[in-house]
Design a protein that fits this description.
By secondary structure, this protein is mostly helical. The chain has one domain. The chain is built from 15 helices and no strands. The protein is globular.
Length: 319
Amino acid sequence: MTDDPITGVTARPEPRVAPWDRYARLRQVAALDPYRDRQRIHRITAGYEFPFDYQRSLELALFRTYCSPSISGVLSESGEFARRPQKRYDDTAILMAEMVEHGVTSDRGGEAVRNINRMHGMYEISNEDMLYVLSTFVFDPIDWIDRYGWRRLHPHERQAAFHYYIEVGEKMGITDLPETMADFHAFRLDYESRNFVYAETNFEIGTYTVDLFAAWFPTPLRPMVRRGVYAMLTDQMAAAFGFPPGSPRLRALLETGLRMRSRLVRLLPPRQRSRTTRDPRNRTYPQYPDGYRPRDLGTPRVKPTVAARRRRLAAAGRS
């Protein structure tokens, strides 16, 4: 299906379902093949069934990757978090959403992949780091929905997420992609055990990100938002960032709120329109995707200084 000549967006919504049939889309997923229909299933899961959960879990997923000095070092070198943290956040979220919404082989999805590859190509990023970041897109939403989702994921949704992101990894030129979810999960755990260590760049990028999250709320609430972020981190992540330990009591309170929300969402009618790229909280690109193409996102390369490059290599243990 071709893109709309005016908006540039492919109009292909899922069939409408009865507003009283909360589990209609779950039955759609059950009838599909998790490999052949991987992008469609993942779009239903992320765009129709769990848009809030996917957004929140991927915020924490990207935050998790900053616990690795080699990853935080690249981000520090780029300077994007210091200059334009909101734009950097929106670029990442929207480019990934374009691929989910349209598929990596579509016009818009392919354009998003090329843009991501162009930006990654500006820096020295190891294949292992790329593979780890990819793993967070598979497992962090699954773990989040298992804890806070309004229903359990169908096995097809879990497998479709794996197959979909393996396809994304292929398009991004990532090698040594695992053949099974179990292998991917084992790689993830091994990577974290070896690479989650404190570094100044972890603290730097982590602090920029916490400040960004806090900036979304009124000024009087920002100290509490920061405490909430710390509470949601694991001990391993807090140590790698050099952040203070989170409050177990506050974490319990936040988790209670998330579970109460899921009970309310369970009573709502099924969503009739995907929320992947149409996020009203997008602050950088008003009315996106109307009037925008994926190539409009991202930033040109900022040449790193020699000192910045040396700091990154030292933080990664390669100096």
